[in-house]
């Protein structure tokens, strides 16, 4: 699996790189045979002013469908933003890879409830 990491507005430390690699490996283990590569972008939108401005944007390229799944999260702590973005990415990947279900028209539980 290829991991492409870039940071904008600050330098990428080895600890941040390791945190991203750990999350990517966990993601790949939870979604086996689905992943071609991961692209991670880290942003500090407010610069030195601080606040809830650290953002992580993650894009996973999927093998079977040749699609991408994208997730992001903003937090005051960049490590939490990375973990949350990967958690969202996993949920998005599962929904893309889940089998599609077809519903008949009029089969909704909200219809024909015999209300008041």
Describe this structure in words.
The structure is a single chain. It contains 2 helices and 4 strands; from the N terminus they run E-H-E-E-E-H. With 116 residues, it is α+β, with helices and mostly antiparallel strands. 17% of the residues are buried. Helix content is 32%, strand content 29%. It has helices at residues 14-30, 78-97, and strands at residues 2-8, 35-44, 54-62, 68-75. A hairpin with a 5-residue loop joins strand 3 (54-62) and strand 4 (68-75). It has a 4-stranded mixed beta sheet. The mean pLDDT is 83. It has a single domain (2-96), classed as Ribosome hibernation promotion factor-like (Double Stranded RNA Binding Domain, 2-Layer Sandwich).
List strands and helices in order, with pairings:
Blueprint: E1 2-8, H1 14-30, E2 35-44, E3 54-62, E4 68-75, H2 78-97
Parallel strand pairs: 1-2
Antiparallel strand pairs: 2-3, 3-4
Helix pairs in contact: 1-2
